[in-house]
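Record 1 of the preview.
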Amino acid sequence: MVPYASWLSSGDNAWQMTAATLVGLMSIPALAVLYGGLVQKKWAVNTMLMVFCTFCLVLITWVLWAFKMGFGEPWIGGSLHLLGKPGASLGTGALEGQANIPLLSAGMPKFRFPQSSLVYFQFVFAAITPILFIGSVLGRIKFRVWLIFVPLWITFAYAVNAFLLWGGGFWAGKGALDFSGGYVIHLAAGVSGFVAAWVIGPRLQRDREHAVPNNLMFVAVGAGLLWLGWNGFNGGDPYFAGADASAAIVNTNLATAIAMMTWIIMDMIGGPEKKPTFLGGLNGMICGLVGITPAAGYVNGFGAIIIGLVCSAVVWFAWNYLSKVPPFNKVDDALGVVYTHGIAGLFGGLLVGLLADPKMIVYLGLGKNPVNISGSGLFYGHAHQLLVQLGAAVTVIIWDGLVTFLLLKGIGLFMKLRMSDEELEIGDVAVHGEEAFPSEGLHLAGVGAARAAELAAESQVSMKAETSPPTET
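->
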């Protein structure tokens, strides 16, 4: 008796499951804690619950039909390969059979881990995408609307992106390079979050003016988990525990370090108060992580430094100046997802078209006529790569923006997308009957959620009577 099938490598399988778990930790608890600390105290429970429920909903959707839409047999588009055929991933073959992506099987080494490892690894990537753009719509979207929206968005937006770029679809066939999701995940999240924030409308004016984080220590914990979890994000995407995985991890951390320090220094030189801030450094950190994601295994260390510097600097200018002009100043993107994920993901993907180094080998060629698998950008004599990267980006921007708009407008025909002003005034107590930092009202014996909401409302009225209203801007 033996524990392993003949095709299985225990090392590759162990790394794939470890990498997937690291990426899962980026969602729960990292983004739950990070976003929960960034929002006002009254929205911490709503934020955390949305993150955890999104993780659940995506997994259910993924194994029932969406995984095969992104990584299965071609279904729609004929030879263009636009979408995979939906189907469940629950049988014995999906759990213990050898992993396989049909359209890629001829162009890469055979996987040496089971299909279940592939399904779960790709699930955590799918899950984090809508979780990221929760940050755009916090503090006003109805919880039940989000529960309906997430499975639909995964089906009609994410699965399409994944198939086109990762599952052997149209843009993969054209040679587009997106190592770990600069386009499939981050550009998609930035675009969809921005459109969703526009459709749903802004937070209450007072909440926008006083959007102070409730716990920076929680933010630091979430940010640290996010950064180190990214080792699984980019290190797991070669699908093998080889040299390219190690290079991707070094590049990821290097670009992030450069980007974080770039933002902090720019804040000190040209920021509104010319002071280094933790939240500014956090923005730079995310820009570096996002920017290197499409490039991690395709660029050398010098390329990683350039990507970290450029993405952080570009987003810093966008955050401080582009945000003041239409349409950006008209849309309440609560946590700036369109900047740190959308713009950083876009520039990271385009920089692959410039900086991809053909000597960075993803898969080694063997035999009489060995052909190594790598990428080659404009700076290495392959100008066409930049055009391909641009085409893929435009596709994601247009498709995801359109799908997000139509889904929300469709849901809006049957229910209100936005909480009532009364719920927006009170927050978590009104919506969930809970508080992250309970007030005295919720500790009273026998007090239910309804009464707790009344107490919170009375507290709000009392506060208004004691303080003057904020100045309108």
